[in-house]
Amino acid sequence: MERMVQDHEQRIISLEKSYSDMQQKMQSVETGQLRIEKTLLEEGKEQKQLINKQREEQDQLFRELVTHTLSIKQNNNMQVWKLLGAVVGGGGILYFVIEQLMK
What we know:
Low-confidence stretches: none
Number of strands: 0
Structural class: mainly alpha
Mean pLDDT: 84
Number of helices: 2
Helix content: over 70%
Largest sheet: none
Radius of gyration: 44 Å
Strand content: under 5%
Distance between the termini: 147 Å
């Protein structure tokens, strides 16, 4: 009977040790998962900041492009009016054409 008690005691000790080892491994897994979660959250935050920065840069470039395009159109319109003013207002060419027609 004493031998059975010792055998049971050994089994209990072995089970307690196995249970303790399992708890340590579970704790290690939980710690690893928490580290992974923290890393993912940090990387997500960094990506969000990068995307926002790129969006702001694209908005700025778009505004500059629109401003530049509008300024080119405005300059082209001004050049047309200057040319028209020079042709009509100069009178020299018009006078020359009329004079040539009268001959």
